[in-house]
Write a structure and sequence with these properties.
Spore Coat Polysaccharide Biosynthesis Protein SpsA, Chain A; two-stranded antiparallel sheet; 13 helices; disordered C terminus; 10-stranded mixed beta sheet
Length: 475
């Protein structure tokens, strides 16, 4: 009886991987057409600047906790964007290092008085600072409450109708916000847009901007480059094209302020505040039958630091798994619920069955398949078929993602870069992927058994030395 169960369980696992990689492949095909269409539209509008009446002003919210080593370079990126009207609001979330002092010294901060209207829930704001050298910069100092709480604090004093959340260890391309905000002007029904996040490790940075795009030197970081290409360039582009975008990255996304207010802002108790706020907006749209949508733009770029070692990467992926599970269970009403249309019938079930459970099934599948083959429960043909579906098909999808980047944007143009990415794609599927499944399993069982390990700590590296500039001085 047990051997028969193992036999059929092997077939179940094979079917699961066929469905999973089938979804990946379908999204890749959809994304290829969607990216080509997007780029064609961009060529028509390239160099065209919208009239000022069509430009949507925005507030960039930058939560900061112990970010003294990277915050200045990030702010120089945010403060020198190619855009007419915007502000940058940094929220020092009770840092234990000298983040606030670094900001005061670098940007000549002075405290200001004024009543704060708490439209979004957050811990008390102690002091508001303006910069004497950068008119667009506002800095808040508040009690520690976490990333989402810090974003809500910034939202409470934001002046503009659109708000973007950006990580304090990230850099924005000079034209990124102009490209991203154009999506709101082009599609009035759009209430949230996410841009692509790429890895800055290895690139040369000046004045807070990536001036020479290079691949990292380590294999682990290059593997993450391939991961990000696959997740953003075809994953989110494909879901967006189907109007089923489930995640707008917490590192780079903009929302309409009135819609954020209607869903209560970011959830300070959520480990995955980015997917949580997106699902709340989807529920608002479908429960009230509102003519709104969320979308993704593959060209506006945010450059982020990726963990450089296995320990830091494991902490990050463990947290992502727990955050995903927390949000999915909080929104379980969406599961195969036709009231929520594509989100309920396809997007949410996919994330529940494949993104949430995929790590568990992958982690247990390899030892079970190998053991069953060794003891003769499955034959060689089945074993080869499984390995082809689980690993070779996955390798092909990684390679096709790299090829899509090469054809569409070719940001990694150095001689040999494409071969480095192909090599990284190979080791991602043979070695790294199995380690990654363990991190996901660890996060899965931490959530199931209520083990709260919080956000964890990831070591940050300083950006390369900048060239100092001044902008918009206040007399």
């Amino acid at each position: 009886m047990f051997l028969e169960f193992l036999y059929w369980f092997n077939w179940f696992i094979l079917g699961y991987f066929i469905l999973l990689n089938g979804f990946y492949f379908l999204l890749l095909i959809i994304s290829s057409f969607a990216v080509a269409r997007y780029n064609k539209e961009f060529v028509v509008t390239k160099g065209v600047r919208l009239p000022i009446t069509f430009v949507k002003p925005f507030s960039i919210l930058v939560p900061a906790y112990n970010e003294a080593s990277v915050i200045v370079e990030a702010l120089r990126s945010f403060l020198s964007l190619d855009f007419e009207e915007y502000e940058v609001i940094v929220c020092n979330d009770g840092s234990k290092d000298n983040t606030l002092q670094v900001l005061m010294d670098e940007f000549a901060l002075v405290p200001v008085e004024g009543a704060i209207k708490y439209r979004f829930p957050c811990k008390p704001i102690k002091t508001v600072y303006f910069s004497k050298t950068h008119s667009r910069l506002v800095v808040l100092d508040k009690e520690n409450g976490g990333k989402a709480d810090a974003q809500n604090a910034g939202a409470n004093i934001a002046r503009y109708p659109y708000m973007g959340a950006v990580d304090s260890d990230s850099l924005l391309s000079f034209d990124s916000m102009r490209k991203l905000m154009a999506r709101f002007s082009a599609s009035p029904e759009t209430v949230g847009v996410g841009g692509i996040v790429r890895i800055s490790n290895g690139s040369r940075i000046e004045n807070g901007h990536v001036v020479d795009v290079r691949l990292p030197t380590s294999l682990l970081e290059n593997i993450q480059v391939v991961e990000y290409l696959r997740a953003f360039l075809y994953g989110r582009m494909g879901w967006s094209h189907l109007n089923i975008l489930m995640i707008i990255s917490g590192a780079f996304g903009v929302f309409r302020q009135d819609v954020l207010a209607r869903v209560g802002g970011w959830n300070s108790k959520a480990l995955g505040e980015d997917i949580d706020v997106v699902l709340k907006i989807h529920r608002l749209i479908h429960e009230n039958k509102l003519p709104m949508r969320l979308s993704f733009a593959p060209d506006p770029v945010c450059w982020t630091q990726a963990p450089a070692d296995l320990k830091g990467l494991g902490v990050q992926r463990d947290r992502w798994q727990r955050g995903l599970m927390q949000t999915l269970f909080l929104n379980i009403r969406l599961f195969f619920n036709p009231r929520y249309k594509q989100i309920g019938m396809l997007g949410y079930p996919y994330f529940f069955l494949f993104e949430m459970l995929g790590g568990v099934f992958e982690f247990i599948s390899y030892p079970i398949i190998f053991a069953c083959f060794f003891f003769g429960i499955v034959n060689l043909s089945f074993f080869v078929l499984f390995m082809s579906v689980a690993l070779i098909w996955g390798l092909c999808i990684s390679y096709m993602s790299v090829a899509l980047e090469e054809v569409s944007y070719r940001r990694y143009s150095k001689k040999g870069d494409i071969f480095k990415l192909f090599a990284a794609g190979f080791f991602e599927n043979f070695g790294y992927r199995q380690i990654h499944s363990w991190w996901r399993v660890r996060g899965f069982f931490k959530y199931i058994f209520g083990i709260n390990s919080g956000w964890g700590t990831i070591q940050r590296a300083q950006f390369k030395k900048r060239t100092v500039i001044q902008e918009n001085p206040i007399s």
